[in-house]
Amino acid sequence: MVMAFVLIRIGTGEQLNFVRSAMEEIAKIKGVVKVHGVFGRYDLIAQVEAPTLEGISRIINDEIRAVAGVLSTESLVVGF
After folding, report:
1. Please, are residues 3 and 59 in contact by the beta-carbon 8 Å criterion?
2. pLDDT 10s digits, 9-45
3. What is the span of the domain harbouring residue 31?
């Protein structure tokens, strides 16, 4: 099993709790184990697991980045 932590920047929205709604959508994605709101350069951090590195890539590129409000991601693949 491959694990990665994905740092996520969220844009601003007109609705209240825009980051929270993006967080809820990301949490529903298959392969996302946990999502936390954080302070600093990034708004969210997600723990992602998949059987292969290609699976991690698919979750990030096809699913997480498709969520409304996601501006950018940075992935930290667990090596040991």
Report:
1. no
2. 998 766 557 899 999 999 999 999 999 999 999 999 9
3. 2-77
**Count of structural domains, the chain:** 1
Q: Where are the alpha helices (DSSP H) in 10-52?
A: 18-27
Contacts of 25-33 with CB under 8 Å at 24 or more apart are 25/67, 25/68, 26/64, 26/67, 26/70, 29/59, 29/63, 29/64, 30/59, 31/55, 31/56, 31/59, 31/63, 32/59, 32/64
Sheet strands side by side (includes 2-10): 32-37, 44-50, 2-10, 70-77
Q: Residue 46's domain is classified under what CATH number?
A: 3.30.70.920
Can you give the pTM of this predicted structure? 0.93
In sequence order, the 6+-apart residues with CB closer than 8 A to the CB of 75 are: 4, 5, 6, 7, 56, 60
